[in-house]
Design goal:
Blueprint: H1 2-21, H2 45-51, H3 55-59
């Protein structure tokens, strides 16, 4: 049983090491909520204004 646990630990260490060395963005901190989040959203009005342009104005 201890061999299975040791094998799992070795596998986990190798997997995390390879993920970090490959340049993957590994964040072991879990979910983060607050000011530090840098999600950027496109303005919702941009696609709507282009879609609301009349077809006659586009063709002229």
């Amino acid at each position: 049983m201890w061999k299975m646990l040791a094998g799992f630990i070795v596998f986990a260490v190798i997997a995390v090491f390879l993920l970090i060395k490959s340049g993957a963005d590994v964040d072991m901190g879990g979910e983060q909520h607050g000011v530090g989040i840098s999600h950027t959203e496109e303005p919702a009005s941009t696609p709507a204004s282009a879609a609301s342009t009349p077809a006659s104005a586009v063709l002229n």
